[in-house]
Amino acid sequence: MRSLKDDWLLDCYSDAIRLQLDPKFIRLLLNEIHRRLDDPVFRRTWFVLSGKISSGGSREARA
Do the domain assignments include residue 60? Predict the structure, then answer.
């Protein structure tokens, strides 16, 4: 089951990409995301979100 912390992490990452924040900060977020990929639900959510980010979709499109 996804936790609020997982949702926060994914939202934070998508905002950091959209706002073009410091690459070191984005890398730290990505390291934490990769650490959590053992969880199948988190992994599935991450792959959906990462596809939307790379295709230029926004967080609002997920709602």
Answer: no
pLDDT per residue as tens digits for the range 6-25: 889 999 999 999 999 999 99
Neighbours of 47 (CB within 10 A): 11
CB within 8 Å of 32: residues ≥ 6 apart? 9
E-assigned strand segments in the chain: none
b or e along 1-15 (b: 16 or more beta carbons within 10 Å of the residue's beta carbon)?
Answer: eeeeebeebbebbbe
- Domain with 29, as residue range(s), is 4-53
Alpha-carbon gap, residue 60 to 34, rounded angstroms: 24
Nearest Cα residue to 53 out of 22, 21, 11 = 11
- Residue 39 carries which DSSP code? S
